Automatic annotation (TrEMBL):
Belongs to the class-I aminoacyl-tRNA synthetase family. Residues 689-794 form the Methionyl/Valyl/Leucyl/Isoleucyl-tRNA synthetase anticodon-binding domain. It is an enzyme of class 6 (ligase). This is Leucine--tRNA ligase. It catalyses: tRNA(Leu) + L-leucine + ATP = L-leucyl-tRNA(Leu) + AMP + diphosphate. It comes from the Bacteria. One of its GO terms (molecular function) is leucine-tRNA ligase activity. It comes from Candidatus Ryanbacteria bacterium RIFCSPHIGHO2_01_45_13. A motif ('KMSKS' region) lies at residues 612-616. Residues 220-410 form the Leucyl-tRNA synthetase editing domain. Residues 421-640 form the Aminoacyl-tRNA synthetase class Ia domain. It holds the Pfam family tRNA-synt_1.
RNA sequence: GGGCAUGUGGCGGAAUUGGUUUACGCGCACGACUCAAAAUCGUGUCCCGAAAGGGAUGUGGGUUCGAAUCCCACCAUGCCCACCA
């Protein structure tokens, strides 16, 4: 047989699979549904990179395995093509996003087909398809109608390069997640989703889902639960009081001053009647313009201004302490005000040192935390740990922990849980997204007072918010030539009169449309449901005016997703938002489950030559060239062989030859296959067959593809040592290899005379009985060191094993006739003589 | 600064979860085939040592008959988050 002709074989089967609809699933009549989902990609200019191939292949192997185990596998694919990412790319190359999308879509699907994954192409979707985003808009309306979407003015993150607001989750270390530009704060009216209503549920739900632990931890951290106390500090000679939140009420005696955030409500209209109003106002204005990064930079010196002519009173000891305003205190964390305890908080320490404010130690470190030398003024440092109270009046000597409760109680404080998670800002002042489906009507505002209608202010005028009626969806994104961001806080659509001028569906009067579009992550919160809807979109039941009522049978059969595979970088973006929406859908009676993904596994990161794959490093790897030279099967297997799927791998193309060699040997072995089908007694390969079935089955189940492939290599090595191979043995081998190398195995399977696809054959079963060995290699150790290895019968007794061990020449050399203290016998494994 | 990982040959990585360290593959060396090369096949390949033997899982300690695996400290690398009161 000549060399394996990968091009011919792969093209042949890709065509046949498509023609025979090998991987399409009858969603309504499936008996054993298994929804195998992979995160759909953002399309980019270069098309698929090898990292995508890595992720998709790992997911596809699992799906193929489940299919062979008898499940009806639903494995859909689509494109997450709406959003800033795609639009920025279009801007970069100076082409309209609609045209870019059309081109990349074609390219992507062609590439995806060449990898040979078993997708349900019938169900494919693109988020920029109006048939898709009419549902994205419908979801917005459901959220709005149930009070989960609202419009409010807030300090928001603004990216000066992308010229749009960003969600908190999209700001990384003060920089825009997409373009790396430093983010500034702006006060704008924006649309939010009320994710904070689900804080507790989202946190608790994590305990009951089978997800990669790293992602759960990331979500817990992002939700950021902290327990503390809310304490009121009265303002001297005033009715006002300053409420602070602290996790360390035990340090209350050490509070030597109060700090208000520049955004604190008490600072407006000089409510505190301070004497240096002008100075404070200047400071507030200055801090407003600061970019987020400048303010959060740890090294950055802290600044602030004292509020003159006013003092706060520490409720525990009636000490009068100064009040400051400083932008190291954030307006949207806690209560926007803190009690500063410089002796026990690093930020307060830094600030107190800068401005010469008093520092009072109230916690003394104990035990292991205790300082080696006695603290003096000179070597004094801030201590943030726990300890015993000092300088705290009647609380002296008690532990931090106890003091938290007792001090809280004695000042009438309230224990409270606080969370870092804040509502999700979903409006974007961009073009390439689904228009938010609401109208603003002036006349409905004037007629006023109607129940269930919200009012808002826009450009200084008052309007009623009128949701677009469901039957009018989608609100189509119009094609406009001038799609560039405007540079103001308005979206490009705000310049398109033909779009925003509209008629109020309620009163028939003039109304204007919302011109912002929604965040990309809203497109992807429901796509796993979208695949089911899309598959059936021709039916009349699938119209937004009917909601999802037509889906209950389908939803119950297929959801939640049984296996979801994707990147861990979406832990607090896509994965948290999706859980949130799913909880909301449940409450709105739209779905029957709360958690959307029963199992989620984060695949590892594929790196190249030790570095993260990125355009700037110039180490992008295009899979096409490898598919061209070696074939898709080889590339698939090579990627999976690099290391455990969940830890990623380093792509060095030297190793790919090894896999190419392996597959070619599998191909060559075909000529050694005998016509005989059933094993005679004493088939030397019987044991390895069953061993490999067990190993590969177990490894695929746990996504340990690298060791599954190693086991198949061992199997091949053993087969090659024989002159002839039984047909059954070879067929079993092909079945085990099929999820990894689907094209070649299909071809050889057909050559063996099968008419049905190998991918619909049943996964081989192993027989425990056939795995039983008669003897094993027993290790003989002396004091835990290996001295000899002997072959002994499997059921050997301890006394027999002891006899055998002591008769070992090698072992005896070390015993030198000495008496042993005892022996440790591990059945089936070893004998350890302790001397 | 916080959280989470990881550290085993020249390299990617195995190790029945506390029991024979280095499976499988790459690379390398030698050999076969060839006029030659490539491809392919075969043999070998943790380190020191002529051998007997000894030493090795980032470093140092501990628990144990026995530790890559468990505990403590330190070092290094990677990822995520970060003025969260």
């Amino acid at each position: 047989m000549s060399k394996y002709p990968h091009k011919k074989v792969e093209r042949k089967w890709q065509d046949v699979w498509e023609r025979r609809r090998t991987y399409e699933t009858d969603l309504l009549n499936a008996q054993k549904p298994f929804y195998n989902l992979m995160m759909f990609p953002y399309p980019s200019a270069e098309g698929l990179h090898v990292g995508n191939v890595y992720a998709f292949t790992g997911s596809d192997i699992f799906g193929r395995f489940k299919r062979m185990q008898g499940y009806d596998v639903f494995e859909p694919i689509g494109l997450d093509g709406f959003g800033i990412h795609s639009e920025n790319h279009a801007l970069n190359i100076g082409e309209h996003p609609i045209r870019v999308a059309a081109r990349t879509q074609k390219n992507f699907y062609t590439q995806l087909k060449k990898i040979g994954n078993g997708y349900n192409w019938d169900a494919k979707l693109e988020t920029y398809d109006p048939e898709y985003y009419k549902w994205t808009q419908w979801i917005f309306l459901q959220m709005y109608k149930h009070g989960l979407a609202y419009r409010k003015e807030a300090d928001v993150n603004w990216c000066p390069k992308c010229l749009t607001v960003l969600a908190d989750e999209q700001v990384i270390s003060g920089e825009c997640e997409r373009c790396g530009t430093k983010v500034v704060v702006k006060k704008l009216k924006q649309w939010f989703f009320r994710i904070t209503k689900y804080t507790d549920q989202l946190l608790e739900g994590l305990d009951n889902i089978d997800w990669s632990e790293t992602v759960k931890v990331a979500q817990r951290n992002w939700i950021g639960r902290s327990e503390g106390t809310v304490i009121d500090f009265p303002v001297k000679d005033s009715w006002e009081r300053i409420t602070v939140f602290t996790t360390r009420p035990d340090t209350l005696f050490g509070a030597t001053y109060i700090v208000l955030s520049p955004k604190h409500a008490l600072l407006t209209d000089n409510k505190l009647q301070i004497t240096n109003e002008k100075e404070v106002e200047d400071y507030i204005n200055k801090s407003k313009g600061k970019i987020v990064e400048e303010r959060t930079q740890k090294a950055k010196e802290k600044t602030g201004v004292e509020l003159k002519g006013v003092k706060a009173v520490n409720p525990i000891n009636s000490a009068e302490i100064p009040i400051w305003v400083a932008d190291y205190v954030l307006g949207d964390v806690g209560t926007g005000a803190i009690m500063a305890v410089p002796a026990h908080d690093e930020r307060d320490w830094e600030f107190a040192v800068t401005y010469g404010l008093p520092i009072k130690m109230v916690i003394s470190a104990t035990g292991d935390n205790a300082p080696k030398q006695k603290m003096s003024k000179e070597n004094m440092r801030c201590y943030t740990g726990e300890g015993v109270l000092i300088n705290s009046g009647r609380f002296d000597g008690i532990s931090s922990q106890r003091a938290r409760l007792e001090i809280t109680e004695s000042v009438g404080g309230k224990m409270e849980k606080r969370f870092h998670l804040r509502d999700w800002l979903i409006s974007r002042q961009r073009y390439w997204g689904p228009p938010i489906p609401v109208l603003y009507c002036k006349r409905c505002y004037s007629s006023g007072g109607e129940e269930g209608v919200d009012y808002t202010e826009k450009d200084g005028e008052h309007y009623a918010i009128i949701p677009i009626p469901e039957e009018d969806l989608p609100v189509k994104l119009p094609y406009i030539e001038e799609f560039r961001p405007t540079g103001t806080d308005k979206a490009p659509l705000a310049n398109v009169a033909g779009f925003y001028k509209s008629e109020c569906p309620k009163c028939g009067g003039e109304a204007i449309r919302e011109t912002d579009v929604s965040d990309t992550f809203l497109d992807s919160v429901w796509y796993y449901i979208g695949y089911l809807i899309f598959r059936n979109q021709k039916s009349e039941i699938w119209h937004p005016k009917n909601g999802w009522s037509g889906g209950s049978t389908l939803f119950r059969k297929w959801l939640p997703v049984r296996m979801y595979i994707g990147g861990a970088e979406h832990a607090v973006l896509h994965l948290l938002y999706t859980r949130f929406l799913s909880y909301a859908f449940y409450d709105l009676g739209l779905v029957h489950f709360k958690e959307p993904f029963t199992v989620f596994r984060a695949h590892g990161l594929l790196i190249s030559e030790g570095a993260k794959i990125s355009k700037s490093r110039g180490n992008i790897i295009n899979p096409d060239q490898y598919i061209e030279v070696y074939g898709a099967d080889t590339l698939r297997m090579y990627l999976m062989f690099l290391g455990p799927f969940e830890s990623g791998g380093d792509f060095r193309d030297t190793g790919i030859r090894g896999i190419a060699r392996f597959l070619d040997r599998v191909w060559q072995l075909y000529k050694c296959v005998s016509n005989a089908n059933s094993a005679g007694a004493g088939d030397r390969l019987e044991k390895i067959v069953h061993k490999t079935i067990r190993k590969v089955t177990n490894d695929i189940t746990h996504l340990r593809y690298n060791t599954a492939i190693a086991a198949l290599m061992i199997f091949l090595n053993d087969m090659e040592r024989e002159n002839t191979i039984l047909q059954d043995t070879y067929a079993t081998f092909l079945q085990l290899l099929a999820p990894f190398a689907p094209h070649m195995c299909e071809e050889l399977w057909e050559m063996l005379g099968h008419n049905e696809s190998i991918h619909h054959s049943s996964w081989p079963a192993f027989d425990e009985e056939k795995l039983k060995e008669e003897t094993f290699q027993m290790a003989i150790q002396i004091n835990g060191k290996l001295r000899d290895v002997v072959t002994v019968p499997v059921g050997v007794s301890e006394s027999e094993a002891t006899k055998i061990a002591f008769s070992s020449k090698k072992a005896n050399k070390y015993l030198e006739g000495r008496k042993y203290q005892r022996v440790i016998f591990v059945p089936g494994r070893l004998m350890n003589i302790v001397i």
